[in-house]
User: What shape does this take?
Amino acid sequence: MTNPWAAAAARADPAVGWARTATTEVSLTRARTADLGAVPKGRIDPRQRQVRITVRHRLGMRPDDPLAEALRQGGGFPGTLQQATDSGFGALKVDGQSLAPTTRLAPVVVSSPKQVTAEFTVTLLRQVKIEELLRFDFTAPTAFPLIVVVRTVTVLPGEWAVLRVEGIQPERQESELMRFSVGAYPVSMTLAPDSYGFPDVAEEDDFSWATALGVLTACALAVFLVRSLGLRWWQRVPNRELVIALAIAAPALLIPLVAEEWSPVAYVILFVAVPVMAVRHAGRVLPTSPPWTVRDLLTVTGLGVLVGIGMLSWSWLHGQLPGRTLLTGAAIAALSAAGAAIGFSLDLGVRPVVVRLAALWAEAAIGLLALALWSRALLSGVYPPDSVRLVLALSWAMIPVAAVAVATRRWSRGAVVGAVVVSLLVQGWPTEWLDAGSWSLAVPRAVVPTIGTLPLDPLVRGVLGLLLLGFVMLVLRLWRLGCQVSAVRNPAAESTMIVVLMVLYITPGGSTTLADIDVPLPLLAITSIVAWVTARWLLTGPRTVVVEPDTQEEHRQFIRAALHKRLLLLAEQELYRTGRTRLGADMSMEEFDQRRRALESALREHGRHPETAFATAAGCTPWHNGLSAFTVSLLLSLPFALVFGWPEGADLTGFLFDGRYLLTLPAFGFLFGYFYPRVRGTQPMTKALHLAAAALLTSLAGYLSTLVEPDIGAFDKAQVVAIVVGQVMMVCVGLGLFWEWRIMHLADEPWARVRNLRSVRSLAAPALALVLAAGTTAASSVAGQTVDRILKGDQVTTGQR
Assistant: This one.
């Protein structure tokens, strides 16, 4: 859309146009606190430079220039401010991480009898590394005809020095100033920080721990993933075909990283080919076809009609087609389709069937008409932006529909509705679909959210959604396997659990370069490896023969036998303790031997059910136990969200990834409940303490590079350790106490029979957890900026590239 002021400039007499003068002043300063006030704190890195670039464009013209009057009238401002400055003076592109959107002040117009001057001010905020160069690209003006033929540019570098220039012939060059004139062609300039020196020889570490850990983690995940599916899964031909097809499609998704112009191929593969493969696989695996009825088809096509009406309304509002033409075309299409349906089905003689088919065909005709108009708008480049995401989300929804059907072994209408809702969330939160101008031709340029330097476009969101779906499928597999008690010893269930833990503990640690593009990748911090090792350590300890109860009644009998044996052991201990003083006084040797033999006989009789009764699954399935432990662990860890902060994210996958720290300790709790009979120890509290050791080692591993960083003080390191230790002990000890109560509750026995609340020794473990939790609260309440940054993931990544 042409700016009114640009059109006015084009209508001016050539002599008036040549009388215009344009100057541009670019100044670099250190960003002040006031400049960074609106920037989220998590985006500001104090170890980097925050630079403010101020660009002032001044345009001088004669009073009779039509452009002066157009500027006074506004010219579509502020919506066309960016187009005005970029088309008249050329856009300025600056490297570095953007801290905030570019801001533009209202133009200042100063009039005098001899001249009119308009000043446009543009502000950019950038964040660059200490040793990073800063490149300016002055693009050519895009207005036709040109508003000004030659413009003078003055650069005030401040704390920067001009390192190299391209296409520039300086008119004046000093340490603090460079001035040059430029026409309708692009030029560039590269600046270097004054205080940074470039070494003659760059020392590079040939060995990267980040890369080595990434390869090791990827290999371990692949091995455990293959083992989690089991040999029987791989023996089925449809499963092997699906894996081969996905392996072929996966590299094609990297096409946009190498050749952006081939991005449509990746879109077709992800949103057409992969859904078709998923539905085909589900159709071959499931024993029955989908139980969809005519009512279901009418509902779906009815929803399609609503979307179609929205598209037809958009086509009418924005002049794609006249309203009368749209109404006439929609009526003719619907009536023709309904008439054809009646003609083909009239011989059936069943009126309800004929009516339903007519309605179905009419709705389908309106939907196809709207789809055709949308395709035409897409080809012409004039379409509602959110309509693309809507169509892509509906196509992508076929993948979770098929996945849930395969996991549950049946087709479900609820799964279809849930999959559609989730797919819409994967492509963006509902608020993103209701932004001002979202369904308008005058679409404001929105800031595209990113992960690192990777923009969250629909393709990236779809791939992240696939990864999220894969994680959900692993959890569903644990549910399917965990419905049987034998899953505790099932290698496939163990491998699946280890994969889930490793995925939750994957932490991005940097980026890599692929085809000269900086691509953020999860360089897989050591926490994922440690989670694997500690999980294996928990499940491969010394094995004690445990007799599993098949029913709740058997569990009740085992617990009562164990309590009886505890009582006998205490009685035997008391007999030997009192025998020291009573033998020879008021107790004879015969009486002592008689009591001892009676206790030993009773102990032999109850030796069949030792205290390993407290190490059984209590007659419950692994999934039920794991879900109970996960719920309790999550409730115990939620208060620590006040320390680590609540998760945030631009979309569903980003939100879940940011909030994965809320699920890491509960995932260890899920492992504790799911594989409880195999966890080291024979009592709930000893098992919980082993769990605490594993979880604590894994959690602290994420801060390993930070804890050895010399630039961080010992007090800050101690605060971080106190917070992590307090959280782990609070969750694990609390889970152990709950599990002890739960075992007794399932046996219909009071908890006081195993834990006397009046005994100091019995309360030692809970008291320790409370002391550590109190210390954590105190540490978090006085946590400074450094501790806050460490806990929220802004860690020093030494040795990573």
The two ends are 44 Å apart (CA to CA).
